[in-house]
Amino acid sequence: MSPRASRPAVREPSVTPVTPGLLREPLAELRDRAERELNVVRATVLALLTAAALAYAPTLTPGLRLVNVAVLLPTLAWTLGQYVLWYGRPRLPRGLAVANPIVDVTAVTAIMAGYALTQSAAVSLKAPMFLAYFAILAARPVTSSTRMAVLVALCAVGEYALLVAFVIGTGRVAVTATPIMAASGTGVSLLDEGAKVLLLAVAGGIATYATAWHERLVIRDGQAARERVRLEVQLARAELERLKYQLQPHFLFNALNAITALISSNPRAAERTVHGLSELLRHSLDSTAHHEVRLDRELELIGHYVDIQRLRFQDRLTVRFGIEPAARNALVPNLLLHPLVENAIRHGVGLRAEGGHVDVRATCVAGRLRLEVSDDGVGAELPPGAAGPVREGIGLGNTRARLRYLFGDAQRLTVTTAPGAGWTVEVELPYRT
Predict the structure, then answer these.
(1) Alpha carbon distance 255, 236 (integer Å)
(2) Strands 423-430, 368-375: parallel, antiparallel or unpaired by DSSP?
(3) Of 237, 254, 343, nearest to 291 (Cα)?
């Protein structure tokens, strides 16, 4: 008996629309990875500074030792604590991209302020520690958004400006008239400090611009990549349509040949065959808009085709179906089994005077759908190592090409045969419902 259980056809899923959120996803992934790598650098630098502070502790005043402990240890604990709290997650909290640089900026300012309060304000402002602000700003393009970069830049400029205003306003440092006198004395120049604040502002502006430029570049590359994928999908769909529509006139031509063979020998059977062909065409046209259908639907079309062939071969043809219940709901390419069954009948059973059997089996194993069409016909001899016939016809060649377009390396189609042993075609696909 032919399977008749009908299932509604399933349309091919459409391409996912490109949204701003999707475009920003690669950017967020890059920033997350950069923040993790930068935190390694931060932890290394802080560990070295802590080691240096411990080494020089005997030569420092109690006030300087207190400053080092009060700033370095909490900052190091914050940095190492991130590994415990968040590094096991797929993504770090978004706030770390702004929290970490602000902690760094504040730590630099706190060190300079502590040295100014406990030692010498002039030495504190002239120390190379000021350059750490620029190192912090330099990392913004790869770890922060444009808004976060602006916030960090304002924080660096604002904190240093407040520090300068505090030490000068409280009289902790003498103000000299010219930068030359400040360089050779113990005072500071307003021109020097104003230039340093301006340089910080310029560096913050450059970091912000670089962040925005990097953001636009990644998003534009993402758009271009998705457009390429969209065009490739359209091209693959067009090729699938071409292959599918090539199959339809192919099996129609073969069905008409079967009818022609019956007209002179059995007109009544030819009439019934025409009726069966009309049913086959009606069902096949119902699913022309679908690249994939449920296996039940595909088996129903095979049933109509087998009915036509039985009228021609009479009792010389037996088609047996062994379909697991779970396999009936699986999605398969439209008209996948038809050319395989057609080949089994024409090149297997049809070449034997006594006829033969065609077996159609479907099983589900470990998330895979396995389909097999075999016959006990005359078979042939394949060259050693060949994966298919020496010359594949339209049916088998198109089936192989469609599987490759739809599933890539996730599919498998093998053909085995031997003289007198018939043909066996096995198809393995991902199981999807």
Answers:
(1) 29
(2) antiparallel
(3) 237
**Strand 423-430 to 412-417 pairing:** antiparallel
Reduced to 3 states (helix: H, G, I; strand: E, B; else coil), residue 256 is: helix
**Whether pLDDT at 25 is above 80:** no
Beta strand 317-323 pairing with 331-333: unpaired
Kindly tell me the burial class for residue 197, based on how many C-beta atoms sit within 10 Å of its own C-beta (0-12, 13-18, 19 or more): middle
Q: pLDDT tens digits for 179-227?
A: 777 777 778 888 888 999 999 999 999 999 998 998 888 888 877 777 7
CA-closest candidate to residue 107, choices 156, 141, 142: 156
Q: Which helix (H) or strand (E) holds 107?
A: helix 96-118
Query: Hey, which residues does 368 pair with through a beta bridge?
Result: 365, 430
Instruction: Report the half-sphere exposure of 196 (CA within 13 A, side-chain side).
Output: 26
The model carries a pTM of: 0.53
Give the angle subtended at the CA of 91 by the CAs of 75 and 20, to the nearest 5°.
Answer: 120
DSSP letter (8 states) at residue 368: E
Cβ-proximal residues to 350 (8 Å cutoff; 6+ apart), any chain? 313, 377
Distance CA 107, CA 159 (A): 11
Going by C-beta distance under 8 Å and a sequence separation of 6 or more, which residues neighbour residue 150?
Answer: 204, 208
d(CA 37, CA 34): 5
- How would you write 181-244 as a 3-class SS string? HHHHCCCEEHHHHHHHHHHHHHHHHHHHHHHHHHHHHHHHHHHHHHHHHHHHHHHHHHHHHHHH
Residues 12 and 292: beta-carbon distance below 8 Å: yes
Q: Residue 169: CB partners within 8 Å, gap ≥ 6?
A: none
C-beta of residue 297 within 8 angstroms of C-beta of residue 6 = yes
What contacts 127, CB < 8 A, 6 or more positions away?
112, 115
Separation CA 112–CA 116 (nearest Å): 6
Amino acid at 164: V
Is 374 in a helix, a strand, or coil? Answer: strand
- Enter the tokens of residue 307: 């009915």
Q: Which domains does the chain have, with CATH numbers?
A: 20-228 (no CATH), 266-430 (3.30.565.10)
Average pLDDT over residues 20-43: 77
